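Q: How would the structure tokens look for this protein?
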Amino acid sequence: METIIRQEAEWILSQQLPGGAVVTAYPGQPKIVPYFAHLALYGLAAWGLNLSRVRAYLDWYLARLERPDRYGVTGTVYDYHLEGEGAEIPAYTYDSSDSYAATFLTLVRLYYGTSGDRAWLEDHWPELDLVAGAMLATLQRDNLTLARPDWRVKYLMDNCEVYRGLKDYAWLLAQVRRSAGEAERYEALAGKVREAIEAKMRVNGGYCPAIYRAGLRRRPNWKKWYPDALAQLFPIITGVVTLGDDAARRLYGNFLRNYPHWHRQAQPENFTTTLVLYAAALMEDRWRVRQYVAGLEENIIARGHPWPYHAAEAGILLLAIKAYLTGSSGEQWY
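A: Here is the predicted structure in token form.
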């Protein structure tokens, strides 16, 4: 696995442009999608690998904050198309304002955790506050966020990531900025989001993947892979449920009952995202982790990383391997 860590770290970096952006190599249309870039760099930051390159991306992101964007939100970053000689052309839209911002703050926490780069944080608190504001721009009275101002759906995945982002920003404020009041405010907000997920989205044996207008809740269809089944792992991945508790074990057990052979699906034509691998590593499902990684090495890595494997998958793979090798500390993402 040490060889895989080194190889995949180098491959992630091969997807980074000179200016710092990380590309998602969609077939025929490479694109900069900040959300996927964050996941790609989680693995490097968690392992403390090539941190100068991680910092280059952080600088790229903060240099492109909108003030405000087309939806009226300040602190967001658009997706970008690549044209001509690598020109980065803004798409003037993004998939979500809440998740992009939340996962960026988690990446900053991971970066600081291994770099100790206090100077970078001190130079960028004003921009980081804008990102935190973008994460909360769509927070509703029920303490759940909408994906985007014009897309009034509250997704389980997004709100789990917002919970994690709030926790991570609270930690940075307390440990680095020494701002106890602000840290307590974000920690309290994280608690409210977690409570709302449990109160509004918990259903028998899992969570509804989305809440629509007027509070319409969708019960999870465990046979529908995305978003329903995959979303069930996000409370585990982001710490909404505590590792080792009955709630986490029941959730993962329900997933296994519906997808008992997920670990055998590590080939391009039938690919299971490495997010499942990370959840399995956190739950100490070590046998399935080993089986999946062996299949991934043979069918994906050795074959030149064919689609749908991309840089974000590699980043989460590195996180999963770290959880597998070092054991879970009860904290997710790192």
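The radius of gyration is 19 Å.

The longest strand covers residues 80-83.

Upvote if useful.
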